[in-house]
Design goal:
The chain has 611 residues and is mostly beta strands. The chain is built from 7 helices and 38 strands. Strands 25, 26, 27, 28, 29, 30, 31, 32, 33, 34, 35, 36, 37 and 38 form a 14-stranded antiparallel sheet that branches. It has a 7-stranded mixed sheet with strand order 6-5-4-3-2-1-14.
Length: 611
């Protein structure tokens, strides 16, 4: 939400007026109150009430459904305040050092210990834990495993930093709202460091916490707001009623900005096509920072230099709130066209007769591939339930019959030196143990193939199928990947990773199919799949695009895309299958298929290169 940048009395008067005149079509997904010290209260619309680090003079009403604690210091974990806020079924989440005192103070209460890197759901609200530590000081050592929280409130990501300093991992996650500490005795070393942290997480809204109580002053808070006000919405504090977390229900982006590659000195135009209620406002951002004066539907870039390169988004706002476009990457280099070069799918092989199945197709001649079925070697990635003895089979249609055309049981049977050289050539991780029962083979395909991985003894376990282009300079190319398996929740989400090399954007069709699989006799289907595409780089996984129901973006254009790549049709525009057409920059991606509302079932994920 893009609020005017106001502080002091004018801010409070405007904010109170905003609550009275809230547009009827705005979707308020929650309200956020920044209270005393680092206390934050989030009331999710139609959902739970969540407190983070409740201390001091907070409300006495027992209204907390969940209490999140960053660490166990007294100005963040108060037994007296938690006692006032608790209900009979309140759940407490804490970093490990706080758990013993909480267990003693609140016997019988559900208390969950979390460390950085956890992802979980509380009352339908997704929560991630991130690091919280001092880099320079030693008041909050990294070894203590204190945590910050990123709470996803209806699509608005709220980051509470706790007593953190600015640390490098802040560039590996994003947040719409950043709550950052200003106390320079125990947290940030300077207020400017907190300003830089807000930019690191690419916030749209920044609110300072941990000031005005022994350390950090109103002058510090005003400096924080002043430094950020030209780049995002920043405010000294929230009113007693809370800050409305909103998304627009009326802005629709018909055409997102598309990634482009131009040679140095070349020109580009980034543009967006959107509709909404009343006049639309636009604000372009580069690498998460607002571009001064870039407030039109198009953004021309003339005589591009390396300084022009970056990731661009545009926030489109109507009278009911904002919507942010997909990322468009501008690369300023001599163009190097690329291709799909590898696929990886990790999922469960579910016993005898139910292998993990992946499809791949190539055109323009034989395509040399390295194919792997990984089980035991997953132990180095802390996978404890890996498939003990995977067998790998490549199937093709030969004279109308499904035929195994290549297979491998133990990878070393192909020659340890030969296979390790092939692994190194494509950048695949090594199999350190020559006697491991992982599977791998070198083969050539021309047209469609399916790859099956199952345990030789029919056992259940997690397996990884990898398909690598072993001849990226050749004339033939991989044109699509697919994987069919059970789509669960959490770690069991059906996920396919793929890579596009070169530096030129690629137009793709990505589908998450459930109901339509009924025509192929598949039982136990995922009734309402959604597909999400994530860009993975620099340790950060960023949601790039998503779709729930395929026809929402235009059934005619979608079906034309299906036909252009030979994908089976989805005839029913009311079908809840998912599909999207996206232009992506070169890089590594994951496509995830899961069920709306946490449903599970059999599903198919497909990635096609479009003409």
């Amino acid at each position: 939400m893009k609020f005017p940048i106001l502080v002091g009395r004018l801010f409070w008067a405007w904010l109170l007026f905003a609550f009275v005149t809230l547009p009827s079509f705005a979707r308020v997904v929650g309200r956020l109150q920044a209270l005393t010290q680092a206390t934050v209260r989030i009331e999710v619309t139609g959902g739970p009430v969540i407190y983070i680090d409740p201390t001091g003079t907070v409300a006495t009403a027992a209204d907390a459904d969940f209490i999140l604690l960053t660490h166990n210091h007294g100005d963040h974990q108060s037994t007296a305040v938690i006692t006032r806020l608790r209900k009979a079924n309140t759940v407490i989440v804490s970093s490990p050092p706080g758990v013993p005192a909480l267990t003693t103070a609140f016997p019988g209460t559900t208390i969950n210990a979390v460390t950085p890197g956890a992802k979980f759901t509380l009352g339908g609200v997704e929560v991630e834990t991130v690091p919280m530590y001092n880099v320079v000081k030693n008041n909050h050592p990294r070894a203590m495993n204190f945590v910050g929280y990123v709470v996803n409130v209806g699509g608005v990501r709220v980051y509470h930093g706790g007593d953190t300093e600015r640390f490098p991992e802040m560039k590996t996650f994003t947040a719409d709202v950043a709550l950052l500490p200003l106390g320079q005795t125990f947290t940030m070393n300077t207020v400017q460091e907190a300003v830089d942290a807000a930019l690191d997480v690419q916030a749209r809204i920044a609110i300072p916490i941990h000031w005005g109580n022994g350390e950090g002053t109103l002058a510090d808070a005003n400096f924080f707001v002043t430094q950020l006000s030209s780049r995002m919405t920043a405010m000294v504090n929230t009113s007693a009623e809370g800050f409305a977390l909103e998304v627009s229900e009326t802005v629709t982006i018909a055409e997102h900005p598309a990634s482009q590659t131009v040679a140095p000195g070349g020109s580009a135009v980034l543009s967006v096509q959107a509709t909404g209620t009343g006049a639309l406002r636009y604000q372009w951002r580069r690498n998460g920072q607002a571009i001064v004066g870039a407030t039109s539907a198009s953004l021309p870039v003339a005589a591009a230099t390396t300084a022009s390169a970056g990731d661009y988004t545009v926030i489109v706002t109507d009278g009911n709130g904002p919507v942010t476009s997909r990322l468009a990457r501008l690369v300023v280099e001599p163009p190097r066209p690329g291709r799909l070069i590898n696929l990886s799918v990790r999922a469960s092989a579910r016993g005898a007769g139910v292998p993990l199945i992946v499809g791949a197709s190539a055109k323009d001649g034989g395509k040399a591939l390295l194919v792997r079925g990984v089980g035991p070697a997953l132990a180095v990635f802390n996978v404890t339930d890996a498939l003990p003895d995977p067998r790998l089979e490549v199937h093709a249609d030969v004279a109308g019959r499904d035929t195994i055309v290549a297979s491998n049981n133990d990878w070393a049977s192909g020659g340890v030196a030969t296979m390790r050289a092939a692994f190194a050539a494509v950048g695949a991780f090594d199999f350190a143990d020559a006697t491991s029962r992982d599977a791998a083979l070198l083969t050539t395909i021309d047209g469609p193939r399916t790859i099956h991985v199952a345990d030789t003894a029919g056992r259940v376990g997690v397996a990884l199928i990898e398909v690598y282009d072993a001849d990226v300079a050749g004339g033939s190319r991989l044109t699509n990947f697919s994987a069919r398996n059970f789509a669960g929740t959490g770690d069991a989400t059906l996920t396919a990773g793929f890579v596009i090399n070169g530096n030129v954007p690629k137009r793709l069709l990505i589908r998450g199919v459930g109901p339509r699989l009924s025509v192929f006799g598949v039982a136990g289907l995922l009734a309402d799949p959604k597909v999400e595409l994530f860009l993975a780089e620099g340790g950060r996984s960023t949601l790039f695009a998503a779709n729930d129901n395929w026809a929402e973006a235009g059934a005619v254009s979608a079906r034309a895309a299906f036909a252009s790549v030979g994908a089976f049709d989805i005839a029913d525009a009311a079908s809840k299958d998912a599909a999207m057409i996206v232009t992506v920059p070169a890089g590594a991606f994951t496509a995830q298929v899961s069920g709306v509302g946490g449903a599970t079932g059999e599903a198919l994920v497909e990635i096609y290169e479009l003409p």
